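request received
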Amino acid sequence: MSVAVNVTSSWINGAPVTTAGATHQIIDPASGRPVAEYALATPADVDNAVDAARQAFPAWSKATPAERSAVLAKLAELADEHADQLIAEEVAQTGKPVRLATEFDVPGSIDNIDFFAGAARRLEGKASAEYSGDHTSSIRREAVGVVATITPWNYPLQMAVWKVIPALAAGCSVVIKPAEITPMTTLTLARLATEAGLPDGVFNVVTGGGADVGTALAGHRDVDVVTFTGSTVVGRKVMAAAAVHGHRTQLELGGKAPFVVFDDADLDAAIQGAVAGALINTGQDCTAATRAIVARDLYDDFVAGVAEVMSKIVVGDPHDPDTDLGPLISFAHRDKVAGMVARAPEQGGRVVTGGVIPDLPGAFYRPTLIADVAETSEVYRDEVFGPVLTVRPFADDDDAIRQANDTVYGLAASAWTRDVYRAQRASREINAGCVWINDHIPIISEMPHGGVGASGFGKDMSDYSFEEYLTIKHVMSDITGAAEKGWHRTVFAQR
Ligand code: NAD
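response:
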């Protein structure tokens, strides 16, 4: 499946628009060659997109749940019909292995759309009751308005779906800015949504850089909520821009997931799980296993086992279904990862396998395991966002939990044990939005995703994500019909 070389620059009010920004080339990181080019949007396009979303909001928010559900169900159907195109675009712009795009990114996105097509019809307020005795109180949950959303490059389609679809299901209209290096699948999603019958202006895409277009969108006065997925540093800038107008934000930020292996764990399962959890999407995954923390008795065997599995990983052409690991997103990012690994030995780390740039044309890097890493070292504390796993031993269960929580992040974690009490204790005491037991990475549309601490706040996926896109309104209706209400005498006496 080939990829179009000219990409629509933005999608505003139900149609492609030609924007006046600089021409931007999308580079295939597996080859370093351009795969497409398009004109970036400008802050003026952001104004137009927000205006379109504002105009479209009243009618879409008043559409019945069944009407909104029908559009989303049709969108899921169209996305499925266009799965080959979505897979080809995702592989071309990110370099992710076609197996991952085919079995994870695209079907996961379609399932998420499908889930919200159903969930749209289950939205409700709360049962009424007479709390004061003289009034019926009820709770209405109403669409919050225009949602501005900004997404990263690592899972471009899934991140767009996670933000846009629950907002649409809730009755909001949306303006999304994807990362400028990976806009293709977000634009295709918007086109398919229009084909599915979504009214013009409900789903708008502005492509463009963070500094101008991203800043303009995050700080726009006419949006109601700003949702963001990306780095912690940028997330805080987005929050500050939104705060100027007092707008709500939701932030899905970085991670540094611990992977805790207790001494009773199934060692083979833990080794297998650590490699899969660390290398998914070339390690460019906010929930990726990055800090293995292993019982001292199992430590040497774990290190040897992970190194052996990692050494057999096939790195190369992402279009080849036999490829396990694609390139990093860019040469600049590959060099950043390589720099962090190169500095690790100065800080006590021992590179057991990997740490090398293979002789391939793209931004590739071999899977890397760094043992004995110091708790203070950069590669242990900071997000690497590459195919790099660190490993440290722990002395006892308390030390394991302490090390797991020794991070500013709190997005995801896993604990490996056959002891039900340890599993329960770890799931309670590890500070993260998700704790897996004897696995690491699986996500599911019905369950929420989102972090604590420097990993942000708020939820994507599941019914919980609706809270980001709804406001709660209390309606209090007098049921006495009396001109003189009981409480009036607290203000004035009848004379
Ligand atoms: P990034 O923060 O650099 O960019 C994210 C988005 O913000 C892009 O669209 C970018 O153009 C835009 N942006 C940049 N500067 C901006 C500004 N000043 N104002 C407004 N928008 C701006 O992140 P990235 O490099 O694209 O993605 C990798 C990061 O995303 C990692 O930190 C990763 O952990 C995180 N991530 C988190 C989750 C999660 O669910 N928590 C999921 C995926 C990725």
